[in-house]
Write a structure and sequence with these properties.
It comes from Azospirillum oleiclasticum. By secondary structure, the protein is an alpha/beta fold. The chain is built from ten helices and ten strands. Bound molecules: adenosine-5'-triphosphate.
Amino acid sequence: MTDGPALYVDGLSVRFGSLRAIDNLSLLVNRGEIRAIIGPNGAGKTTLLDIVTGKTRPDTGTVLLDGGLDLLAMSEPQIALAGVGRKFQKPSVFEALSVRDNLRLALRAPGRSIFAEMGHRLGAAEEARAEAMLERIGMAGMGARRAGVLSHGEKQWLEIGMLLLQEPRVLLLDEPVAGMSDSETDRTAELVLSLRAPDRAIVVIEHDMSFVERIADVVTVLHEGRTLVEGSMARVQADARVRDVYLGR
Ligand SMILES: Nc1ncnc2c1ncn2[C@@H]1O[C@H](COP(=O)(O)OP(=O)(O)OP(=O)(O)O)[C@@H](O)[C@H]1O
């Protein structure tokens, strides 16, 4: 299915007890776009990603992938297989394995266990894909290094590489530069910009505004589970309401 926006969210609401974490939210992200979602703590950013990936079920609303695939009717693994890739804030690579083996694992057949996979030889084409990904994430020459000894930034790039090998149509990144040095943040901005593709949408939650300014085509400001403002970074920064609830703090 290739028609329609990459991600279509309409009338979405979820309550936790009396708290409306997401409140009648509508959002549309096009293919080829890099979207940033910003907003104060508790605005509902992570909850939105949890709903899109099937981790949290909303009370009402619609979430469609590529204009037609009903994500709310699917399980978490089905959503991942349909092309929604998510990177959590903390890196979660296999620390005891080499960088190259981490990438190889990302190419494993869905459902096959890691142990079965370790004894399985990848084909030449898959080995070549893993090698090309090393280059793409700026880690050529580091394939034999144990992932556990990588810097925080390197672990994040490796995990992004692992996600990319699954060819996501929607890539969700939760605070990718949290805890990074300035130079790591710069490299991450370049990497994210290089991931833009005509058939892929990238959604980034981030509090680092200079990073957001560099990467985002459109910025959505969430506040109390709703969209407060949406538009270019310049428009968002100039908005008095955004300064009130978030940027001016
Ligand atoms: N499983 C849950 N049970 C109860 N309350 C929850 C649950 N998940 C989130 N919340 C609440 O919902 C609100 C939205 O949380 P969410 O984590 O989505 O915000 P956020 O915008 O991602 O914030 P942050 O920038 O701090 O990560 C918060 O008040 C949070 O405490």
